[in-house]
Write a structure and sequence with these properties.
single chain; alpha+beta; Thrombin, subunit H; Pdz3 Domain; N-terminal domain of MutM-like DNA repair proteins; 6-stranded antiparallel β-barrel
Length: about 475
Amino acid sequence: MRGFIKILLAVVLICIVVVPSYAQRNVREAIVKIYTVYTKHDYDMPWQLLRQGRKYGSGCIISDKRILTNAHVVANQTFIQVKRAGQAKKYTAKVEIVDHNCDLAVLRVADDSFFSGAEPLQMGTLPKMGDRVAVYGFPMGGDELCITEGVVSRVEYNRYAHSGAHLLTCQIDAAINPGSSGGPVIKDGKIVGVAFQEYMFAQNIGYMVPVTVIDHFLEDIADGNYEGIPSLGINLQAMENPGLRSKYHMNDKQTGVLVKYIAPKSCAQGILKSADVILSIDGEPIANDGTIRFRDNERVYFEYMVHNKFIGDTVQCKILRDGKVLDVTIALKTVINSSRLVPYKQYDKAPTYYIVGGLVFQPLTRNYLDIWDELRDAPAHLVNYYLHGEPSEGRRQIIVLTKILGDEITVGYDDFRNHVISQVNGEKISSMEDFVKAIENNDGEYHIIVDEWGNQIVLERNKVDETNGKVLRKYKIDSDKSEDLK
């Protein structure tokens, strides 16, 4: 009997040692290094491309012979290769679906031999604070697979640097460096996140896209189409100040957030009103700081309830309007970040532009502001639109005169660069499409372009027609407008 117990203990001990080793080996075999050749567009001269660049990142094999990685690893890609950890051969890969908002992408490799011997990694559950995790990837400093370990420090809403979106994140103290991006974060042999950014001004603070966001992305694309993460399309204010609460008729037991703006064509338009107070969402009370109960001793921003749903789903909100409590249902049809006046950085997309007699006009984007080394160096009025601008029925884009091509027809207008345009030929301008129509439908003697400060640019229409082709040839520009305006 004693001998049997010894054998049993030996078996138990072997299991304790062997199982983690086997699981780790499976994880290693599923890790992928990604090599991306990319080309960005030149927003200073939007008709041309910047020079080609190269970058690399990490990823992992998941179900259905797919590779999961970050969107920023393959952004603006023109050619992608991948190789498995511990192997030398590289294979050509293509992006199947990408969402820059949540910084995730799925790649495909046509050659099935790439996957030979690899078991796809499975999704785990959202880790808790204090849980130990391991980050697998190919950070700078070497060519081979690197594994770093740490603990989950926080689970909260934070800004995704790639897209500007605010979504759920997990902070971890495992080292994350350039090249780690896209690599899986593993707990108990399963994916609990994807490493995607670090905090540059402190040591050992990294972030992962949590498995809840990954699960949402993978479920959304299961039918081959991606609809995106829903949003209410509203701006809100916290209700922690007693005077503010009193003004909007809140009693001592009520908590919530104040609706201060509703974007045109958002799913909340016509249902919510400015000055409504949202008290709860799907039965969860919203605190005065905008958070809801998440897990034991944890709170999270209330839009987690929205972001966790899909386009076409609904949310139930209890609101306070003029002192009366009402129940409303909102059908989710607005995608996150789609209600901005000036979009965050755009990827995999050519810039929009229109040239009139040597004057180059573009809608304002973060990409254009990035032609300055720092955002603080860009024109202050444009930065203000980027940071605080809100779209309205009368203004869907900010149209900017971004460049004056030297020619006789543009003499005297050099100082008008970066002016925001408000009217063209007597028509108020809400979008780039409005601008083009106002020019091309004009049969008057002059094109009269007015900026937001009342300054006028006057061009003789016949001279514009005569010289536009000459200016384009002089500056080796193929077309006076981008493809999306043709």
